[in-house]
Design brief:
Elements (H helix, E strand, L loop, with lengths): L2 E9 L7 E2 L2 E2 L3 E8 L4 E5 L5 H13 L12 H12 L7 H21 L3 H4 L8 E6 L14 H13 L4 E4 L19 H18 L4 E5 L6 H11 L6 E3 L7 H8 L6 E3 L5 H10 L5 E2 L8 H13 L13 H12 L7 E4 L3 H7 L5 E3 L2 E3 L12 H6 L8
Parallel strand pairs: 6-12, 7-8, 8-9, 9-10, 10-11
Antiparallel strand pairs: 1-4, 2-3, 4-5, 6-14, 13-14
Helix pairs in contact: 1-3, 2-3, 3-10, 5-6, 7-8, 9-10, 10-11
The structure holds magnesium ion.
Magnesium ion (MG) binds next to loops.
Length: 394
């Protein structure tokens, strides 16, 4: 079963309406791998910030000669071929995002050919559905404006918990939004710090002690700032403090780890099993959050999960891009024993459903997958072309 073509689509189903930090937010890169057996597979290689989706899409087009003509069944061989071809660009990020989309598409094909859902090919279900934690619940939605004050967060937290969510995430340090992808000093003002801590206090007060509250620091802080923030959040029993320092320095992470008692989660910007091993070996995190469209696809998430299992560390995939990331991550996590929860942006559900041929089966804080072959969902090329992101041709 030879691969005959790779189609790449860069899509913004919001038409530019969804923005973050003054950039389009929901710009998603989808790939379709076609075969001479008439079976095709869908994958996703979306990236961030928005122009990251264009960069990865361009890279997939450039790597087309190493994809077309290969056997679609040989997923591991494809993984290594693409990773090694692109690794001279650096083994982190760009090559693994390219690999991710193709890997996911080949799993979709393998499932369709076998007539089985992908999770079945990964060893079968270890749970009936995929538990989620909610993100994006503070964004404008359902007639409510985006949260701006601590009391807004408290009210929005009550609403999302009432919808059945038992775990929620946020970055309460608003002041840092412009620095999310622009780390410079790693500091925060006293006013910004106070606002974030007050938000978390208001949320905990509003939803009680049982709900898991996860705090994302977005890798924005230097060591003393991260330590101080973690200590200030400790009384509110946060479930984890995520990416306290920029991802390139495990020594910074280690320094924070040695000085705080809150659980630590890292991994959305760690790529492949080789990046995760030193985090595990150094006991630097309590949770790992590999991203299925960034770290190397379904194959690599499964390998990272197995590696983490040897340390009895749970994985809890990062999930902030498009609908195939949700579905691919969910297939993997149905089959992984050492799993906590899959991230879920509740504000993105309408955009996910607009792209997919059927809505996600969400019930409270659980995502249910159907036993349909492959990923179990289809995208419509005509829809993708009609909603191409501004600046993308093809
Ligand atoms: Mg994060």
């Amino acid at each position: 079963m030879k691969i005959t073509d790779v189609e790449v689509y860069v899509v913004d189903p919001t038409g530019g309406a969804a923005t973050y930090n003054e950039e389009p937010q929901n710009v998603w890169t989808f790939v379709r791998v076609l075969t001479d057996a008439g079976v095709h597979g869908w994958g996703e290689s979306s990236n961030f910030p928005a122009n990251g989706s264009f960069i990865i899409a361009d890279a997939i087009r450039r790597l087309r000669p190493w994809i077309v003509g290969q056997d679609a069944a040989d997923i591991t061989a494809m993984w290594h071929r693409l990773f090694r071809k692109a690794a001279y660009l650096g083994p982190r990020g760009l090559p693994t995002a390219v690999v991710s989309g193709i890997d996911i598409a080949l799993w979709d094909i393998k499932g369709k050919v076998a007539g089985r859902p992908v999770y079945d090919l990964l060893g079968g279900k270890v749970r009936a559905s995929v538990p989620l934690y909610a993100n994006g619940w503070f964004a404008a939605q359902d007639g409510h404006p985006a949260c701006a004050k601590p009391e807004d967060y408290a009210a929005a937290a009550r609403r999302v918990v009432a919808r059945g969510h038992a775990a929620i995430k946020l970055d309460p340090f608003h002041e840092m939004v412009p620095y999310h992808t622009g780390y410079l000093t790693g500091g925060i003002t006293a006013v910004g710090e106070e606002f974030g801590v007050t938000c978390v206090a208001a949320i905990r007060e509003a939803i009680g002690p049982e709900i898991v509250v996860l705090i994302d620091a977005h890798g924005q802080y230097n060591v003393p700032t991260a330590v101080r923030l973690a200590r200030r959040l400790e009384p509110y029993r946060i479930g984890w403090f995520e990416e306290p320092t920029p991802p390139e320095s495990l020594e910074a992470l280690r320094a924070v780890r040695e000085q705080v008692s809150v659980p630590i989660c890292v991994g959305e910007r760690l790529y492949t099993r080789w990046d995760f091993l030193p985090v595990l070996a150094g006991r630097l995190a309590d949770y790992l959050m590999p991203d299925v469209v960034w770290t190397g696809g379904i194959s690599e998430v499964i390998r990272i999960a197995a590696l983490a299992e040897t340390y009895h560390v749970p994985v809890t995939p990062h999930n902030a891009m498009g609908p195939l990331q949700v579905v691919a991550g969910a297939h993997a996590m149905l089959a992984v024993p050492n799993f906590f929860r899959l991230e879920h942006n509740v504000a993105n559900v309408p955009w996910y459903d607009r792209c997919l041929d059927r809505p996600l089966d969400l019930r409270g804080d659980q995502l249910h997958l159907s036993p349909r072959p492959g990923l179990g969902v289809e995208l419509d090329p005509a829809f993708l072309r009609a909603h191409r992101a501004r600046g993308w041709s093809g």
